[in-house]
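Thread title: Can someone regenerate the structure for this chain?

I was given the following input by a collaborator and told the matching structure tokens would be attached. They weren't. Posting the sequence so someone can regenerate them.
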Amino acid sequence: MLTGKVAVVTGASRGIGRMIAKVLAGEGAQVIVNYNGSQERAEETVRAIVEAGGKAEAVRCDVSDFEKSGEMMDYVIKTYGHVDILVNNAGITRDGLLMRMSEEDFDAVVRTNMKGAFNCMRHVARQMIRQKSGRIINISSVSGVLGNGGQVNYAASKAGIIGMTKSAARELASRGITVNAIAPGFINTEMTEVLSDAVKEGAAAQIPMKVFGETEDVAWAAVYLASDRARYITGQVLCVDGGMAM
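Best answer:
Regenerated them for you:
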């Protein structure tokens, strides 16, 4: 489905990003596994892809840094000739109640989650416009759709991603570029593993399907939006959340 395509997946060393990278590679794409923290985890992702017959390379970059993001995109284009798919998945959490949240924690989350997505879109847009094609997929969150207590910073960043997605979609549609967002709900990852059983049960009770999703559920949605089968879909938010945001 994606043979010959080059995909950049930010924050791809673990969790949802890792699974998106693996599934894109499984569909034939050359995948750039972006990471900022653990090189070991990123290389594990690359090894898993290569062992399964796919193609991948790990590239370190702090996407919240505008210049570094540009350098990463320049490297990918110089090395592989083009970027066809950009998945903005990199994100952090620093949860806390509004009255106790520090300015530092607010700024850090918005800088990585929202500005990081802007940086990568900004630096890849010109090349996609020249080739008159491209798929940009921004990973938002059900928190950005509904809001969530204790996550003013995270919800703001993810809601901002939705606004950027719709605006960029309008700007780029005439150039053959689609821009969409995926808003996952509660997904089984390392982040949810640390929750207590009581918290998990309370969260599941809010989900019409009554269970957490899997990283594969998000990854296959990303593959669809990255494919030619979704060529007439842009500016949309696909909630992969078991019905939470209905």
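The chain has a mean pLDDT of 96.
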